[in-house]
Amino acid sequence: MKIGDRVEKIEGYRWPGVVVAAFRTTKGDDRVMVECEEPAVAGALHIYAPDQLRVVQR
């Protein structure tokens, strides 16, 4: 996943959004930060492991 990709969570609560950052933790794990586009919480940020998300076309 790269910055600008539109994504959504695979399981659990809904979190449609855009990847705004991608980085590696000090332990070497990849993470992506997603800015939510759901109107009720638009702009909120969450950090996920890439395997928690899928890229979507909108």
Write the layout of secondary structure elements.
Blueprint: E1 6-9, E2 17-24, E3 30-36, E4 45-48, E5 53-55
Antiparallel strand pairs: 1-2, 1-5, 2-3, 3-4
The CATH topology is: SH3 type barrels
**Helix content bin:** under 10%
Mean pLDDT: 95
Radius of gyration: 11 Å
CATH C-level:
Mainly Beta
Structural class: mainly beta
Q: Which architecture per CATH?
A: Roll
- Uncertain spans: none
| Approximate shape | globular
Helix count from the secondary structure assignment: 0
| Total E-strand runs | 5
Question: First CA to last CA: what distance?
Answer: 16 Å
Which strand order do you get reading across the main beta sheet?
4-3-2-1-5
The domain tally reads 1
Largest sheet: 5 strands, antiparallel
Strand content: 35-45%
Query: Would you list the SSEs in sequence order as H and E?
Result: EEEEE
Task: List its salient traits.
globular; single chain; SH3 type barrels; mainly beta
Task: Provide structural commentary.
By secondary structure, the chain is mainly β. The protein has a single domain (6-55), classed as SH3 type barrels (Roll). Helix content is 0%, strand content 45%. The protein has strands spanning 6-9, 17-24, 30-36, 45-48, 53-55. A five-stranded antiparallel beta sheet has the order 4-3-2-1-5, with no helix packed on it. The protein is globular.
The gist of it:
Helix content is 0%, strand content 45%. With 58 residues, it is an all-beta fold.
